[in-house]
Amino acid sequence: MAAEVIYGKQLAEQIRQEMKEEVATLSEAGIYPKLVVVIVGEDPASLSYVRGKQRASENIGMSSELMELPEDTSQTKLLDIITRLNEDESVHGILVQLPLPEQIMEQKVIESIDPSKDVDGFHPINIGRLMTGQETFYPCTPFGIVVMLKRANISIEGKHVVIIGRSNLVGKPVGQLLLNEHATVTYCHSRTKDLKDYTKKADILIVAAGKAGMISGEDITEGTVVIDVGVNRVDGKLTGDVDFDSASQKASHITPVPKGVGPMTITMLLHNTIKAAKWIHQK
Ligand SMILES: Nc1nc(=O)c2c([nH]1)NC[C@@H]1CN(c3ccc(C(=O)N[C@@H](CCC(=O)O)C(=O)O)cc3)C=[N+]21
């Protein structure tokens, strides 16, 4: 049986339509959610992502500013800029595009962002809140995955979720979010022995390893839900970590790359920015 393809892109458009209305309502109340995206250097992939974020913000009527800094920007300079953005009351969300050039310590930058403007959900305070089951900004890709599962009517409670990848950006937080949703979670990674023993036992398999085509149909059992978080460029083309053609023969549901998780990530960034704007005005 061929899998049902979950098009994140379609879901994202639906959700963005809802958010567009919310932004309009907020603006009637004098609240104008604003996101600032900071990018250091000119990596073409990073530039293309941040342009996607800009476009998405504009499409829902949200104000979004892009700050492009030169590749050789010092850490001090970047931290100064973040301090100013933290203090600027017209700015609700701050996103510093990762990765950063090597003269800048990523963790230092992440921790300098005011947790109440950390729409990426990467600040240790927000990670801690996620771990303790509190309301906070959830990291966009993990959050997008959960919303996608829910909108596709896939139940999470009691399911065995197997995650491949343990990054701070995706693997670790997606496991935590799904644990909060009452899943049983197994983390696998590059040092896991006999990986296939785990992937075969998954009800929901989340592949966020950054290795093109590392999972194929023979690694899964019939009826598995397969979420592909890979963003790999192979011969200039964007491909996931899952071999779609073989995996979709066995999966019950599968997400494509592109048009799968990626558009949901951007949508949750917009969601978090709106949430930030509402929070600030509640204080
Ligand atoms: N501080 C920070 N926050 C991030 O959220 C962040 C980051 N840094 N660094 C890089 C990664 C990557 N990322 C993507 C978001 C959307 C798509 C996306 O929308 N992709 C489209 C296609 C885009 C294309 O064709 O190039 C799709 O999958 O259909 C991809 C990748 C966010 N990231």
Could you please describe the fold and organization of this structure?
By secondary structure, this protein is of the alpha/beta class. It has two domains: 30-114, Leucine Dehydrogenase, chain A, domain 1 (Rossmann fold, 3-Layer(aba) Sandwich), CATH 3.40.50.10860; 140-261, Rossmann fold, CATH 3.40.50. Helices cover 43% and strands 16% of the residues. The chain contains ten helices and eleven strands. It has helices at 8-28, 44-59, 75-87, 106-112, 124-131, 140-151, 171-180, 195-199, 244-250, 261-282; strands spanning 4-5, 34-40, 63-69, 93-96, 160-164, 184-188, 204-207, 225-228, 232-234, 237-239, 253-254. The strands form three sheets. The protein has a six-stranded parallel beta sheet with strand order 1-11-8-7-5-6, sandwiched between helices. The chain has a three-stranded parallel beta sheet with strand order 3-2-4, sandwiched between helices. A two-stranded antiparallel ribbon has the order 9-10. Helix 2 (44-59) links the parallel strand 2 and strand 3. The longest helix is centred in the last third of the chain and has 22 residues, at 261-282. The mean pLDDT is 96. 5,10-Methenyltetrahydrofolate is lined by residues 48-49, 52, 95-98, 120, 140, 231, 238, 257-259, 262-263, 265-266.
